[in-house]
Amino acid sequence: MNNNKRVWRIYSLKYEVSNIIRKNIYKKIFFGTLLAVCTLFLPYFFVTLYNDREESDINKVKVTDSNIMIEVADLSDDGKKSCIAIDEYVKGALSCELNKIRTEFEISDETAKALAVIIRTHVYKIEENVEENIITEEKCGYEYTSDYDKQADMAVDATDNIIIEYNGKAVDCFYCMSSGGMTRDGATDLEGEDYAYLKSVTVKEDYNAPEFLTLCYYKNDEFREIISKEFEITLNDNYTAADFDITDTYSAGYIRNVMIKTADTDDKAIMSNKESDKRYKTVSGEQFAKTFDLPSQCFYIEDFNGGIRIVSKGRGHGFGMSLYGAEMMSRDNKTYEEIINYFYQSIVFVTL
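Structure (tokenized):
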């Protein structure tokens, strides 16, 4: 009997050991499987969680009790004015903008939608700074027509009540017909972090934009006369394009100041710092461009055919969305959200 008990005990111990080993193997299999599952699916989980958070950060709903109306001129002969809802105004303003752009190139629906959001945002930006419930057409700043364009009507309805914000406020949605190949940096050029959403981005498509290059040629005497009359500066008799220093620039090559070498300049005594040298006179890039009717502050000056030629690139101030660049993105199957996010970065789409 004792031998039987010992034998049973031995088998019992073998079973327990085997059971323990089996359990350990099962544990290893279980935890190994769990580790494999975690390795495979945890990244997906966190990416999904991040994307959900990112999506919620990008698209928000804001409850507003705004009942702002836009006062527009009535087309009737009695000269009366009427008040319309914001989106009705946006349809009329967008119609006018689209008609202007179509003289240059055709507009796709996604570009029209992007412009609808931009115009609506502009109106709400004005609303943030006024106490009245009625905003005049003049204050909005866009031309308006009650004869709505079909594409404008569609674009406004498709982006119903959507605006874009940065740091909780409606943004200044600058846009231009085309950049000089790269848009300007808002925080740097406008000197404020409130414009940090206006990042400098490359827009290579603009090189093919209508009238991307503007060439202005002047004979030496003609150019000298304009400089003398407009800026009260006397040029050297044998002046050249090198007498116009345009190295003081904003971002993306837009000219901040033009330093002009005058007839009183002594070449042997030229100071290294031209800004402190009274023999050089400074003209702002904006003033220079306006004087010569340049469509952009992105320009350079060169000697050409015995005279002076000014070459400007792009059309407009160069901030924000390039309309031509946006249209090329639209034709490349980009959505209006993708277009806006490219030109206005770190912004949030808000549905009012």
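Confidence is low (pLDDT under 50) at residues 1-28, 41-57. The longest strand covers residues 213-219.
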